[in-house]
Amino acid sequence: MKPVSLTDASIDDDFWTPRIQTVRDSTIDFVYDRLVESGRIENFRIAAGEADGDFQGRFYNDSDVYKWLEGACYFLTTDSDADLRERVDELVSLIASAQEADGYLNTYFQLVEPEQKWTNLHVLHELYCAGHLFEAAIAHSEATGEDSLVKVATALADHIDERFGPDGYRGVPGHEGIELALVKLYRETGEQRYLDLAEHFVDHRGDPDSRLKYEAFHPEEIAGDAYDHVVEDGEYDGRYFQDHAPLREQETVEGHAVRAMYLYTGAGDVAIETGDDELVAVLERLWENMTERRMYVTGGIGSSHEGERFTGDYDLPNETSYAETCAALGSIIWNRRLLQLTREAKYADLQSRTLYNALLAGLSLDGTRFFYANPHEMGPEGHPLHDEDPNRFAAQRQGWFQTACCPTNVPRLLASLATQVYASDDSSLYVNHHIGSEATVVVDDTTVTVEQESSFPWDAESCLTVTPAQPATFELALRIPEWCTDVSVTVAGEETEATPGEFLHVEREWTAGDKIVFEGSFPVTFVRANPNVRSASGAVAVQRGPVVYCLEGQDSPRPLHQLRLLPDGDTVVDHDHELLDGVTTLDLDALVPEESCWAGGPLYQPDSETTVETTTVRAIPYYGWANRGEDEMRVWVDAESSQL
Amino acid sequence: MKPVSLTDASIDDDFWTPRIQTVRDSTIDFVYDRLVESGRIENFRIAAGEADGDFQGRFYNDSDVYKWLEGACYFLTTDSDADLRERVDELVSLIASAQEADGYLNTYFQLVEPEQKWTNLHVLHELYCAGHLFEAAIAHSEATGEDSLVKVATALADHIDERFGPDGYRGVPGHEGIELALVKLYRETGEQRYLDLAEHFVDHRGDPDSRLKYEAFHPEEIAGDAYDHVVEDGEYDGRYFQDHAPLREQETVEGHAVRAMYLYTGAGDVAIETGDDELVAVLERLWENMTERRMYVTGGIGSSHEGERFTGDYDLPNETSYAETCAALGSIIWNRRLLQLTREAKYADLQSRTLYNALLAGLSLDGTRFFYANPHEMGPEGHPLHDEDPNRFAAQRQGWFQTACCPTNVPRLLASLATQVYASDDSSLYVNHHIGSEATVVVDDTTVTVEQESSFPWDAESCLTVTPAQPATFELALRIPEWCTDVSVTVAGEETEATPGEFLHVEREWTAGDKIVFEGSFPVTFVRANPNVRSASGAVAVQRGPVVYCLEGQDSPRPLHQLRLLPDGDTVVDHDHELLDGVTTLDLDALVPEESCWAGGPLYQPDSETTVETTTVRAIPYYGWANRGEDEMRVWVDAESSQL
């Protein structure tokens, strides 16, 4: 299947439209100002010879400019905005001016280590930055119809292909991302070399004579410093950047979570283009490992801040969970490739889980504050790693980061959300997500307009109106999310059998205005984690529809550690239009210690002298936490045992 | 009341005798060898001019030599041991040789900073080391009848009194300990100045013009470095060494736990001598704060490794609990003073709790491995602070520490344990502890021999035989521990009313061979912590008699985090003579997740799809953990809620 393009789709959704609007009205400007303030744009000006000065910031700062540009262009694709367009035009022109005659473009190396280009792939992110340029260029072309940035991109891509292609020395990027971008550029330009290079980057990771390994052992030959953390006791451990084995031999998701997601996404893109079933099987195997061993219930991934990485099976600490916002984005885009490749609903279910929870939690409701790392529990004393890095490890979202990957990533995903909703192939139209929207796709040579109204994520109701240009027979595949019960689907008034967790396939002749009405329930689900997950033992998470809930201290009559939820208790579901820009809340029954038993202030006493009483606590969606001041928070809450 | 002296008491107890014997046969030699190896004894040799070389180790290393000497002398008090006596004699002679003509004695200053003596009270432990010399000297005198070391002690005490007494500049020690030692020396010598100086040190902590504060702000005037951690944002915070307010105004136990315990002990000694009721009330208030807010269920105190100190109310983390073995010793000796002052059984109860649990856990069963910090939980990955200090934060007891306070402290306490058991005053004989033993005390001019047989801590049975030199009327006060039920006491065959948690007072005419037979039960008690204790929420600890239990992984059918104990379940109590040198074990009922529910390997699933099953897990005494290899361990175990 092929996703709908942004020019052919738009969102009109009670839940998502206000959020995307906030990103457009606030986040885009807010982030742009930070790019200016931090010198990220000035670096291009200096490289272009239009200003004097030294390179500012980190060696990957160009990527933030490209990512902002990509997001801004997505907005320009669907909306005209003269001011935004002017900033985009200026930036594109500046980027073009900064490019060297041979196509090279990376302001860090141009300004700091011009003689050392391409010598330090394992640390210095030249290929990663190039990939983000390619993505921005394609978005720019789509938004404006102009090829000015694509020309910059192809000149750089050609330069890279000369060096890394068949006749080059065939290193691979230390931070992936260029693979998927090269496939995008191949699709945009038809240039086979770009696809070949992407395939090369996918297939030559973990080579026995890995360039990344070589660099780690030869710091004297490279720009900047080598990573010492990839060498332990004299032995190379390439897991950090998925260089420990050829991808096709990898069995587990390893290392830096964002790198891993970008690699798998690029590999998925290669497989889409080449039909490489072996590669698909590898990705399915890695997906199983991730989802059955190494993923938070929110879809968050990469549990350790040390290396921002995957650790061992079932190691999912809550207070120190890293669950980087960018890794959530990476999972969402990887899952789109798996969905395209396999047409299995579970990948869209995981996209949905990750989008509504792990990703959305990264952005404040007002669009100007960000979590880089996403805790799944906040104690009354704040983040346990706060002293190590008060910016990344805080009880509240922050305005900016020296490494600003997350603030520049969320806008580009939300601005292009419409492309996630629909897809098509020769004979089918896929409705992957329940999001109010409209799209026009071509199925079997017929142009089909599809309109969707949806009350997700708060209620399991959607209505699709299908309007082919003329009556036509094709299949419509509607995803029935795994968390629905009591599902009823009528197609043009006719009841149809549907199974949660699968696509409902309806092949028929469609005529203008045919409606598919989906109705179901979102039961409140108390979720248990596998008994091997030490951090969730004895506890439950609460989910309703795709939304994972949490407790914040202010909604609880007691400190959160005193609560023991009653999964068999009563739950009151209510929609509060004011709270957190409108959320469905859950009032849950819980046991708490009877306070009178402790009135005298003893520190310890026999269990037999104590009793418990029932109370009620309000749960809110996890994504909405930390929008009402500093507070304690829990996703996993102690719960009474299930019955014997 | 006055405790029995070591010359008048001896232990003969199934539980304690083998342990004390291990300390005598192994620990004493093991520690001595470490003192030699580490240069601690050589420092004295160099200071005495008998050897060349540089001072080795830390500035408080003299104290370890004195503490070893004190413990060794306690053994010599009751047993002749030519080899040990020879080492003691040599050491005493060496110490005397190292003393300067004016009485000064501290090998660190003598060898490293001879011009800077007494300039850095807040860091450099001169007074603390002196205190330990005084204690060793008195033990030596008691053991040998010789006054050679007492002479050294009094010369140093006189030197100190000149400097810190009425005409001196009246600083106070940065690490307390000398206060209690000065009172001991006063009792030994009758020298009033020593008591006065102790009183001064007790009463001048927290002076507005604190010398400790002055030093912290004037690093240029002092030996070595100043502590930077007692100054925050330019403000002095003297809590670390209890210098934040005059002791009489202190409301909470603060700062370094060992320092606090030694101060309170010294203050108790002063109060015993002066009859200062105000001071007693202060200590009672501090005791309440500690026992109702800041103490582990094992009696361990000082929850944070940062500053080895008390933190806030109810802050009692399990995995990182510091609960220094020396702080447990400090609590035991402080509680003896409170017991002496008030005659309330609760202080002996806490001594007992601390002795069987927090203190004893610090020593391996073979007597040659030590915990400095005592965790109350060990996860499968080991100690979370391991990387910070693999020696102090380990999953197993260690052989030695650069700061070796704990290995030298445990022997001196256990070697003198007999002195804790009995006490007397003009009209009463107190039996404070149920430990098999014999003692001779004088009550109301009558010499009374008391023999005790006891099956503590495994069973609540003791039998006392009282033999006055001639029939005499006096009161015998027998402590009925708080954790006993079904108590029956017969005095010379007559049933007597007794209340757990109080002393049973029996005033009568005693004749030779009168027996007091105590019988009771030790129910298995599931203990809950105050709901404010976040780290114990939803969990129980298990106690039987004075013994707090724990679970080790090897005794559980499942990883410990999967267990949920059933306080209302069946418990099987069994005594295993082989296990851990003989312990009473508890087989406890617990719920665990039904494994078949998770057979497919899902990471998450609805609670409604899962069930639990019952199992049994064996609990062992906490003091015995980590004697069978590295393993996970928990004192607090998740438990089903009490009934509504």
TrEMBL record, chains A, B:
SUPFAM superfamilies: Six-hairpin glycosidases (SSF48208)
Residues annotated as domain Non-reducing end beta-L-arabinofuranosidase-like GH127 catalytic: 11-417
Record keywords: Hydrolase
One Pfam family in the UniProt entry: Beta-AFase-like_GH127_cat
InterPro entries to which the protein is assigned, alphabetical: 6-hairpin_glycosidase_sf, Beta-AFase-like, Beta-AFase-like_GH127_C, Beta-AFase-like_GH127_cat, Beta-AFase-like_GH127_middle
Molecular function, one GO term: hydrolase activity
Non-reducing end beta-L-arabinofuranosidase-like GH127 middle domain ranges (all copies): 429-518
Domain of life: Archaea
Gene Ontology BP terms: carbohydrate metabolic process
Residues covered by the Non-reducing end beta-L-arabinofuranosidase-like GH127 C-terminal domain: 524-637
Keyword Transmembrane (UniProt): no
Protein name: Glycoside hydrolase family 127 protein
